[in-house]
Amino acid sequence: MTVAVVDYGSGNLRSAAKALERAARESGYAGAVEVTADPQRVAAAERIVLPGVGAFGDCRAGLEALPGMIEALEEAVIAKARPFLGICVGMQLMAGVGREHGDTPGFGWLPGEVVALEPSDPALKIPHMGWNELVIEAEHPLLAGLDQGSHVYFVHGYHLRLEEPAQRLACVDYGGSVTAIVGRDNMAGTQFHPEKSQAAGLRLLTNFLEWRV
Prior knowledge:
By secondary structure, the chain is of the alpha/beta class. The chain contains 6 helices and 14 strands. Helices cover 27% and strands 32% of the residues.
């Protein structure tokens, strides 16, 4: 059993892998955590994590630069229904389109678009950077043990606007409601960085390792 952390040149791979390794140790998960740029390893993994920092288009281009990687993700996540977790831009790529610096197609797994944050309070800075309180909106195995108001850590200037409200599991208030966690079937994503979110982030990663779909 392997958790594949997809390596496509995005920035926070090692910290995400280290956090997953800690969650695996503390939960007794028997599998290995592997950072890989090999599409075959991704297609064969039991679980897949797609981190992402930076611009939507750059992350999409990084994946396209690895021959067969997007197809491997489709095979594992859509055809084989393996548990998938997208982090930050890795979550945003699940959408139909990203609007950052022009339109870039996403995976189309969640109907919606990634658009610029526009807080109603002009005093709120962009990017949204720092801690915020989760508002949990739905029950989901990934949220087991997480309390309303759990603090999680964000760094982003764009957010995912979903077409299907039921696919939003949690939000935060940043001059308006901002999607924080999404989920559908075997796939989930967080706009915040669980690897930087201390106890709440570790709980969510542990839940991901234990998630049966």
